[in-house]
Amino acid sequence: MSYAVAALYQFTSLPDAAALQAPLRALCEAHDVKGTVLLAPEGVNGTVAAPPAALDAFLAELREGPPFAGRLDGLELKLSTAAQAPFGRLKVKVKREIVTLGDPAADPSVRAGAYVAPSDWNALIARDDVVVVDVRNAFEVEMGSFEGAIDPRTRRFSDFKAFAAERLGDARGRTIAMFCTGGIRCEKASAHLLAQGFSDVRQLKGGVLKYLEEVPSAESLWRGTCFVFDDRIALGHGLAEIPPEETTP
């Protein structure tokens, strides 16, 4: 059996996040969905998998039916496949943030960096006046990145604030182009930089996953593989699974 995998998120007001936990778990279980979904007052974030028809039904109900009643109609979604089940169980958690940065001023639903389509990304990062920042953690960067991108050497996303304060100050007047796995960390990181007075902050729409999905390998500037937080470990162009022995480093 093959599996469909959905990486999803949306920043939207969910003041009832705690009350949504049980009905969301029930919805996942009804469609045999496994993986992790995080709920917080700022929105929803997760990666889940199920047989293709079951995942389609789950996503349709997530967007349109209870428990969210249409509040997730703007869901950011990346779809891929897995030859085997990439998750062994289901986790639905309530958190303070759906991606933890710890900066109340960084609110992507109010202001975030301008989106750059994957088809426009190569031209942007080739410019001499652009500072390219990989927003992912150090172990992810080691497996693959865009050549010339700054590696913040963070162990966790909340370390990004210190990196920005210590190493990006001289770039405050330049164009900052940032990217991450699926886009969600860039939403928060770009909002943080804008709140700190950076004027031109841009983010790769849909993250590396969308870039690998849409940009042909012959035109790609990506080097290496893209780490994913499930049992597949890494994906390549076309979101194909990469055998463990072919991953880098």
Question: What's the layout of helices and strands?
Answer:
Elements: E1 3-11, H1 17-30, E2 34-40, E3 43-50, H2 52-64, E4 76-82, E5 90-94, E6 114-116, H3 118-125, E7 130-134, H4 138-141, E8 144-146, H5 160-167, E9 175-179, H6 184-195, E10 200-204, H7 207-214, E11 222-224, E12 226-227, E13 234-235
Organism: Methylopila capsulata
InterPro entries: Rhodanese-like_dom (IPR001763), Rhodanese-like_dom_sf (IPR036873), TrhO (IPR020936), TRHO_N (IPR040503)
Keywords: Oxidoreductase, tRNA processing
Structural class: alpha/beta
Question: How much is the average pLDDT?
Answer: 95
Largest sheet: 5 strands, mixed
Distance between the termini: 30 Å
Low-confidence stretches: none
* Widest sheet, order of strands: 4-1-3-2-5
If you compute it from the alpha carbons, what radius of gyration comes out, rounded to the nearest whole angstrom?
Answer: 18 Å
What does it look like?
By secondary structure, the protein is α/β, with parallel strands linked by helices. It is 27% helix and 26% strand. The chain has seven helices and 13 strands. Strands 4-1-3-2-5 form a five-stranded mixed beta sheet. Strands 6-10-9-7 form a four-stranded parallel beta sheet. A hairpin with a 2-residue loop joins strand 2 and strand 3 (43-50). The longest helix is centred in the first third of the chain and has 14 residues, at 17-30. The two termini are 30 Å apart. The model has no long low-confidence stretch (mean pLDDT 95). Residues 126-220 form the Rhodanese domain.
